[in-house]
Amino acid sequence: xxxxxxGRLIEGQIYVKLSLSACDxxxxxxxxxxxxxxxxxxxxxSIPKLxxxxxxxxxxxxxxxxxxxxxxxxxxxxxxxxxxxxxxVFVAILLSPEGIxxxxxxxxxxxxxxxxxxVAYEFLRLFLSVIGSLSWYVLPALxxxxxxxxxxxxxxxxxxxxxxxxxxxxxxxxxxxxxxxGAMILPLLLLEAIALGGASPPINLAVPLAGHLGLLLMATxxxxxxxxxSALTESTLVAxxxxxxxxxxxxxxxxxxxxxxxxxxxALEHLSLIRHYSNLVQGVLSTSSIxxxxxxxxxxxxLTAQYIEALRFSRR
Length: 316
Fold this sequence. Notes:
Layout: H1 2-70, H2 73-95, H3 100-110, H4 119-143, H5 148-152, H6 156-160, H7 166-197, H8 206-231, H9 236-251, H10 253-260, H11 262-270, H12 273-281, H13 287-314
Helix pairs in contact: 1-7, 2-4, 2-7, 4-7, 4-8, 4-9, 7-8, 7-13, 8-9, 8-12, 8-13, 10-11, 12-13
């Protein structure tokens, strides 16, 4: 009678030992997973902090660039010349003998039946087209010193070896010069409001929104390209000339595409900044135009960041 009891006790002890052993095995399986979940949770909690730090650093770089532009006599000179030419274009399009208002008046007086002209739309299309052309000459003058000045003053090495990532520095510099260009565009909005305020019927709001979006996207793409070229040299003049040369080549893409024809010509034509800007100015908001401008912007920032990263490794 004792043996079965002992046997049951022994079996019970064995069962308990086996149960404890199973718990230990389960614990060893659960603990790594729990540690992984905790690490993932902590990393998710750190994402907002990382975004906040990145945003702060980007805006700090942009603010530094903005202060440099607003304290530079050359920047004010560029701004003044741009406003003067824009004002001249505004008057020429509206009030010159060859302007829209005079042409419409002559058509009405002639008595010849002609299709109606949307004066507001034609004015905005012509005005933004000319402002875009002026920007091709102004933007290289703004981007030429983004990194060339750092090279000339010997601070590029410090910037390359700083704890701030090269992407943040490049985006911050690009944002700073873009905000300054936006400040140059703001007075032109007042001129447009004066010209379009009395339009009857009023112009479709989507048209000026698409046109100004195209202007900002094209400006950002050009500034991004100019920023990369500025990183290659310590001479601001050389950076401006090289940027002009690249823009001149890009302006010939559409003409070159027409001469080549075929699928290769279509591919070259799709790379034309002027073609996509013209579509947006006409109120045609297409995904392909936005993607193309975005590709130019990302390419310029990427090449700049990679070049500064290569410079960082060369200094080690």
